[in-house]
Amino acid sequence: MDLYNCTLCPRRCGVDRAERAGFCGAGMQARIALVSLHPWEEPCLTGEKGAGTVFFSYCNLRCCYCQNHEISHGGKGTEVSDARLAEIFLEQQARGAATLDLVTPTHYVPQILHALSLAKEKGFHLPVVYNSSGYETVETIEALRGSVDIFLPDLKYAEKESAREYSAAPDYFPVAQAAIRQMVAQAGPVQFAEDGHMIRGVLVRHMVLPGHRHESMKLLDWLWQTFGDTIQISLMNQYTPMYHADAHKPLNRRLTTFEYESVVDHAMALGITHCYVQERRAASKEYVPQFDGRGVEKSSKQ
């Protein structure tokens, strides 16, 4: 967990982040683009008022279709101290958030752990959600033990070629497999409260990509064979061609109903029961957050 020789993610750049940024672009302080109550996460995470999202800037992947590219690639956002980050966590709790949803947090794990310890000293108690790309080291996941209640990883690709072309990470699948195994070992089987809210466990997201339905089925096969119904799965149909997707066939088009439904049918045929599916209307740019810096700086009204 040394920011002066950073190996937080599988890139293992080894850079001194006080001097320069590595692959992800992050420095010594956490950079945040948006703090919000987000109603469009999975129902078990949102409650009545929404998940308490904290969108971190930069990312260790380079997804050519990223809907959040202005913050993940461009780094739009504001740097904050660990003390301010702790205040943000407490403010989300005061707003009535159902969970603290840390979005793309990998490259800021040391800052997050420090901020969580500061916030807990002042009464912070929300379930903490680690919402990541799945491109994680086992060591970083282990460092989160006792601080994260719910792991929310993506599982994007099964094929090296897809991961290389679309995210500049040819080793994505074996790396994500090891990380998700560690998450499940750490969090245990998925647990829900009586009101349906998730209180512990792993929720794996997979967004079905156009032209890649058989790859999606392969991912579902691995999840089912490895974890059975001890995890929750979310199959997403919200793919929308954005950013540089037009340069990468077949990602330059929307997902068809047939493609998505065939993946859902495959999940059902396997016997998967803990699985969210989406309606077609979820595929829209209107669901992309506006990264306008809301909630990042301390309000004079507080």
Write a structural description.
By secondary structure, the protein is α/β, with parallel strands linked by helices. It has nine helices and ten strands. Strands 1, 2, 3, 4, 5, 6, 7, 8, 9 and 10 form a ten-stranded mixed beta sheet that branches. The protein is globular.
Quick summary:
With 302 residues, this protein is of the alpha/beta class. It has nine helices and ten strands.
Task: Record the SSE blueprint.
Layout (H helix, E strand, L loop, with lengths): L29 E9 L4 H4 L4 E6 L12 H4 L5 E3 L1 H13 L5 E4 L5 H12 L7 E5 L5 H6 L6 E4 L6 H8 L4 H16 L3 E2 L5 E10 L5 H15 L4 E5 L20 H14 L4 E2 L26
Parallel strand pairs: 2-4, 4-5, 5-6, 6-8, 8-9, 9-10
Antiparallel strand pairs: 1-2, 1-3, 7-8
Helix pairs in contact: 3-4, 8-9
Order of helices and strands: EHEHEHEHEHEHHEEHEHE
- Count of helices? 9
Instruction: Report the mean per-residue pLDDT as an integer.
Output: 95
Strand content: 15-25%
What structural category do the secondary elements indicate?
Answer: alpha/beta
Q: Uncertain regions: pLDDT < 50 for 5+ in a row?
A: none
Major β-sheet profile: 10 strands, mixed
Tell me the number of strands.
10
The percent of residues in helical segments reads 25-40%
